[in-house]
Each structure stands twice: as structure tokens, then as C-alpha cells.
Task: inverse folding
């Protein structure tokens, strides 16, 4: 009986924290929508004028304004906007003449593919570098890794992309140039997941797969470098915290081999906070891909957004902002919650 | 009595002497930290370039010379010339002015905004706190660059609008920081004494709480500078920031993009300037943190 009461209270608690999480998520989304709505309203371009043209009479103008719902109070307009967004209606893009939601579904996988490969590179290199830097604290290795990581905070992504293209594509010819796949392979593989590397494997088209790999490797590595910088810095900081603890000294005194002390004892305890860091940098990569995509003509959401910016295609701009923002928020909040769920100290 | 002994006096006779002494102490400790000293040197060069651009730059930053376009780096044109025959070195030197203006204005707008919001939020607590921190959290959990892009798209391209857009997205961390600091001493005795003495809320926040939040904010602002420079350059690169013919580094890289394969110097040279200055701020920020905030040590 006693244990069931405890069990129930745990249930209630996790249910309440889940509900609290959803409420916070809902509020953050509402805030995001309020911002995009606000941006949509402060633009100097008059949306009515762009529909009726500047030769329209006053009556025509007013009629169009009423038809677009712009004569209603702002709060009512916002409610309609939220309703539209929640039902997946982001308006129509004036440059592609398709619904923005449909456009975004088409371009998003390309960004996802690049960011995912980027984060894999960032984790595989960043974590060992961070650990190494902490173990060799204050030595030349540590200083070099720290400066290398600080470069990730100081190099403009678009510049590194251009230099990368000049060196590895034009100069050395190691990688393929801009775009997602060589032009003669374009459209050969039907999108199933939208991830070209996966789709070409599913359909067994190895030529396309290798061409796509050739194209993705440079932009993804550059993206990965930026997450590497953050991951290595944080890993170093977490590891230094642990290596100074008494249990590490105890383990060393007991004669546990050094690699075991580092990778099993100390590293074991920082896995949980590292997950949060990796989650955050994954979200940041989705954002950072905007610049990289422009440089590499990568047909992803970043390229879509910047193209829309220049065509004054406000629906597409706000739609992309909303989608990137939403993904960013979800990854952020989920890694936050994951931290609390996985950390044994919070399981009291 | 020499100036040094006056500055390092343990019993300062005036408030001025105490604060100057503290500044001197921080400065000497920064000088002993090699990376921080390097950071300070880089920023000093940046400030000198901005201040004395007309004397340092050998040519005009906007004067065109079509006979000498796209020349490689040489003794005459240290960084080569661009597609309109303008000397890239001169443009980079003048670009330091724009970078300083952008960084300075963003800091001047966003840091006080965040500080005041955070201090008010932490000082009053309750509903004020919940609302202000709710808004802060919403802004914090949003992608900064994308938000800045959307704001500039709405406001129209240009350097002023880029500054506004970056400032709008940059304040939330300062609010968080100031709130956390305020919470630790909002019930402290000196605050209660000030209240008993009849100090208004505005006076207590402005004169007693905000100064105590300033050192952690300065560290954070310095560390954020690199990000602000990169965002500003990114907006310039996309054509949304400074407009031609302004010698903004990001916009210069964008112009050189077309020639990257044959005339590499047009796009790469301004990039080196961006990297150098951002690194300078990172080094200085790290050093400031070690000096002003001994708790965190050199861990990150």
C-alpha cells in the first residue's frame, strides 16, 4: 500500500511536469507566432496595395482590405493567423506561386541532411578533442585545441565556405562544387524521405549516392566545424570539473588505469550534460545552415529563406522563420527535458 | 608619491581613487594573461585603424580606378584591388569604423536594455518577474540569426536596421544574467538600509543593484561581440546590412564571391579582418572572465 502511494505520487509528478512542459512549449510557440505576426504587420509594404495595384479606387482598396481581413482588430487578426498556422496554412509564396508549407516540405530534408552529417562530424571530433584538451590542461596541446575551438566562434561561416570551395573544389578537386548532386544525376532518384543519401541507397543507385556524398561532404564538414568548436569547449569544461573531483583521485590511487579513469569514470558522468550541449548545437546548425546554403547553392530552407528575402516574398520569409524557429524551440526544450530525465540526481 | 603607489594604495582616500585603482588592478592582471593581452592588442589596433583611418589607409576607400582592377596583392596594393580598382587594404581599414560602430551601438542598446529588464524583474519578483522572464525565455529559445533576418526583411536593408535587428535579438542573455545577480542580493542588508533611508525603487535599482551586475555583464558582452560581428557581417554578406559603396567587411566578401576562383584576395582579405577582430574579442572576454570572475577559473 505504502509503495503504491509512492508510485502514484511519482506518476502524478511526472504527469504534472509533462503538462508544465507542454504549457511552456505552447507559450513559446505563441510567442514565436506573435513575433512573426508582428513582423508581418510592421513591414512598410502595404499587402493590400500589392494585390489591387496603385491605380485602384478607394472603394476597391477598402473592399480588398476587408476581404483580406485587415480591417478587423489586430487581436482578431492574430487569432485567425494562429488558426491558419496551426492548420498548416502559411500562405502562398509569390515567387514560386505554391503554398509556402508545400515549398518548405520540399526543401527542409536537404537542410536536415546537411545538419545531421554536420553534427555527426562535430560530435565525433569535438568530444575527443575536448577530453584531450582537459587531460592535457595548460599544455601546448590544450592551448592549440582551445585556439582551434575559439576559431569556430570567430570565422564567418560564409567566408569559410567560399575559401573551402576555392581550395578543395577549384584548387585540389577533392570535392564536388555547389549544389546537392551532379547536374546529370538531378531528379534521377524519386524523393522518398527527401534525404538524397538515404533515397539513393534505398533505390540502389550508387552513382547518385557517391555524387551526393561528394557534394555534401564539404558544406557538412564546415557546418560540423562550428558545432565542434562549441562541443569541444563544453566537453573540456565538464571534464575539468570532473577530473578535479575526489572520486577521480581515489580511482587513481586505487591503481585504475588512466584511460579507464578518463573514459569510464570521468566521462561517464558528463554524458548527460553533453547530450544537452549536442542538442543545442544541432539546433544551432539548422540556423547556421542559412549562410552555408547560400554559399553552396544548397536547395534547403536557408536558401529558400534568402531567395524569398530578395523577392520581398513575405509569406515565404515568415513561414521559413516560423518553421526554423519551431524546430529550434522543440530541440532546445527537448534537450532541456532530456537532461532532467536522464540525470539520476533528479530521480529522487 | 608615484602614480602606481597611488593606484595600488590599500586605503583609497576617494571614490575616484578606489575605482581607478580597481581598473588598474584588472588591467595589470589582464596583461599577465597572454591571450587576454593579445586580445587587447588586437582591439587596440582596431580602434587605432578606426580613429586614424584617413592617415593609415594609403588610398580612398571609395575612389575607383578601373585601369587597375583586380590586381593581386603587391607592395603598392598590400591586399590587392577589387573589381572597381579600389584598394582593398584601404577599404579594410575604413571598414574598422563600421565594425566598431555596429558593435558599439548593439552593445549600447542591448546591454542596458537587458540589464534594466533583468534587474527590475529580479527586484520586484512576483508577476513582473514571471512576465518579463517569460518574454525573455521566448526570445532566448529562438534562433537569433533567423530572427534578425526576418526583422531586417521587414524594416528594409541598411546598416541602421541591421543594428536594430541585432540589438533586438541580443538582449535576453543580459536580462537573465542581471536577474540572477539581483536575486542574490535583493534582500541584502545594504538594499534594506537604502530602502529604510527612503530610497525609491528606481534609485535602489539604478545606484545599488545595477553597478553590481555590471562586471558579469561586461564579460558576457565581450564574449558576445564575436557573435555580433559575425551576424553583422552575415547580414552584410546577404546584402541586408551596410549598402555599397560602404566598405563593410561582410559586404566586401559578398562582392568578391564572384571572383573567388581566380582573384581569391578580393573575398578572403576582409575575412581575415573579421576573424582577427572576433578572435580579439574572444581572447579578451576569456581573460576578463578569468580576472573578474575567479569562481569559473579557466574551465571553459
Result:
Amino acid at each position: 500500500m505504502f509503495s503504491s502511494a509512492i508510485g502514484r505520487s511519482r506518476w502524478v509528478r511526472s504527469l504534472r511536469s509533462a503538462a508544465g512542459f507542454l504549457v511552456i512549449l505552447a507559450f513559446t510557440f505563441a510567442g514565436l507566432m506573435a513575433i512573426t505576426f508582428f513582423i508581418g504587420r510592421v513591414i512598410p509594404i502595404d499587402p493590400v496595395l500589392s494585390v489591387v495595384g496603385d491605380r485602384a479606387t478607394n472603394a476597391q482598396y477598402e473592399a480588398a482590405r476587408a476581404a483580406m481581413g485587415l480591417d478587423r482588430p489586430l487581436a482578431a487578426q492574430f487569432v485567425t493567423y494562429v488558426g491558419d498556422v496551426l492548420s498548416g496554412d502559411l500562405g502562398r509564396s509569390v515567387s514560386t506561386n505554391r503554398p509556402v508549407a508545400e515549398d518548405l516540405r520540399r526543401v527542409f530534408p536537404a537542410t536536415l541532411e546537411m545538419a545531421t552529417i554536420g553534427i555527426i562530424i562535430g560530435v565525433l571530433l569535438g568530444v575527443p578533442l575536448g577530453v584531450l584538451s582537459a587531460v592535457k590542461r595548460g599544455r601546448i596541446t590544450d592551448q592549440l585545441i582551445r585556439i582551434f575551438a575559439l576559431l569556430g566562434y570567430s570565422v564567418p561561416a560564409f567566408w569559410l565556405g567560399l575559401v573551402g570551395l576555392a581550395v578543395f573544389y577549384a584548387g585540389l578537386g577533392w570535392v564536388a562544387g555547389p549544389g546537392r548532386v551532379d547536374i546529370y544525376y538531378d531528379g534521377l532518384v524519386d524523393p522518398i524521405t527527401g534525404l538524397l543519401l538515404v533515397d539513393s541507397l534505398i533505390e540502389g543507385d550508387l552513382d547518385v549516392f557517391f555524387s551526393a556524398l561528394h557534394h555534401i561532404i564539404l558544406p557538412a564538414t564546415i557546418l560540423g566545424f562550428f558545432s565542434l568548436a562549441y562541443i569541444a569547449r563544453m566537453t573540456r569544461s565538464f571534464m575539468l570539473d570532473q577530473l578535479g573531483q575526489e572520486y577521480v583521485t581515489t580511482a587513481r590511487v586505487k591503481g585504475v588505469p588512466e584511460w579507464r579513469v578518463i573514459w569510464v569514470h570521468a566521462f561517464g558522468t558528463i554524458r548527460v550534460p553533453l547530450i544537452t550541449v549536442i542538442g543545442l548545437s544541432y539546433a544551432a546548425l539548422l540556423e547556421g545552415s542559412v549562410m552555408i546554403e547560400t554559399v553552396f547553392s544548397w536547395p534547403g530552407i536557408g536558401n529558400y529563406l534568402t531567395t524569398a528575402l530578395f523577392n520581398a516574398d513575405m509569406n515565404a520569409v515568415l513561414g521559413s522563420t516560423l518553421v526554423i524557429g519551431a524546430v529550434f524551440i522543440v530541440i532546445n526544450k527537448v534537450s532541456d527535458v532530456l537532461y532532467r530525465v536522464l540525470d539520476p540526481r533528479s530521480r529522487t | 608619491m608615484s602614480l602606481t603607489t597611488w593606484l595600488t594604495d590599500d586605503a583609497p582616500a576617494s571614490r575616484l581613487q578606489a575605482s581607478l585603482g580597481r581598473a588598474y588592478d584588472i588591467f595589470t592582471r589582464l596583461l599577465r594573461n597572454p591571450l587576454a593581452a593579445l586580445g587587447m592588442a588586437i582591439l587596440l589596433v582596431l580602434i587605432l585603424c578606426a580613429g586614424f583611418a584617413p592617415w593609415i589607409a594609403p588610398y580612398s576607400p571609395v575612389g575607383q580606378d578601373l585601369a587597375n582592377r583586380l590586381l593581386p596583392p603587391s607592395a603598392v596594393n598590400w591586399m590587392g584591388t577589387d573589381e572597381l580598382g579600389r584598394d582593398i587594404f584601404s577599404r579594410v581599414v575604413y571598414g574598422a569604423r563600421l565594425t566598431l560602430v555596429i558593435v558599439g551601438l548593439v552593445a549600447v542598446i542591448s546591454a542596458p536594455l537587458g540589464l534594466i529588464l533583468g534587474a527590475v524583474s529580479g527586484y520586484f519578483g512576483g508577476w513582473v518577474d514571471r512576465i518579463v522572464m517569460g518574454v525573455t525565455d521566448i526570445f532566448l529559445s529562438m534562433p537569433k540569426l533567423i530572427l534578425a533576418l526576418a526583422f531586417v526583411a521587414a524594416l528594409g536593408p541598411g546598416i541602421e536596421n541591421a543594428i536594430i535587428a541585432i540589438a533586438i535579438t541580443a538582449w535576453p542573455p543580459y536580462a537573465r544574467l542581471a536577474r540572477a545577480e539581483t536575486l542574490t542580493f535583493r534582500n541584502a542588508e545594504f538594499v534594506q538600509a537604502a530602502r529604510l533611508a527612503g530610497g525609491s525603487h528606481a534609485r535602489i535599482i539604478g545606484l545599488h543593484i545595477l553597478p553590481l551586475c555590471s562586471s558579469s555583464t561586461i564579460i558576457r558582452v565581450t564574449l558576445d561581440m564575436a557573435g555580433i560581428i559575425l551576424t553583422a557581417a552575415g547580414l552584410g554578406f546577404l546584402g541586408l546590412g551596410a549598402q555599397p559603396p560602404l566598405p563593410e567587411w561582410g559586404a566586401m566578401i559578398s562582392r568578391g564571391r564572384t571572383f573567388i576562383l581566380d582573384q581569391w584576395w578580393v573575398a578572403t582579405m576582409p575575412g581575415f579582418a573579421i576573424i582577427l577582430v572576433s578572435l580579439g574579442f574572444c581572447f579578451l572576454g576569456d581573460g576578463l572572465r578569468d580576472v573578474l570572475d575567479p569562481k569559473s577559473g579557466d574551465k571553459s
